[in-house]
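User: hey, got a sec? need V-type proton ATPase subunit F folded
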Amino acid sequence: MSEKRTLIAVLGDEDTTTGLLLAGIGQNDASTGAKNFFVYHEDKTTKEQLEAKFREFTQERKDIAIVLVNQFVADIIRATVDAYVEPFPAILEIPSKDHPYDPEKDSVLKRVRKLFGE
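Assistant: Yep! Here you go:
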């Protein structure tokens, strides 16, 4: 199952997404128009748009291995992120320039703590 998953997807602010695209993770399928990144704009993007893109990356697309999400973006759709329990694609919360990383909010670290009985 994981053999077909070769892409990294991004749900993040403009600076994070731009940096990762410059690093070479961008994929734009010319035939379908599908992209493996989504830029969150605080004044333009709705919670519903974020949830739809998260579902696309995690449930509909079978070519994505890792979804990188700015933690503050994950906080907006926290219930959806926490409800996701599949091994692929892996969801990793990352900091952004303007929002520091808080390990207490990270869904992966919450699961690890629960596994170890903390």
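Quick note: The chain has a mean pLDDT of 91. Let me know if you need anything else on V-type proton ATPase subunit F.
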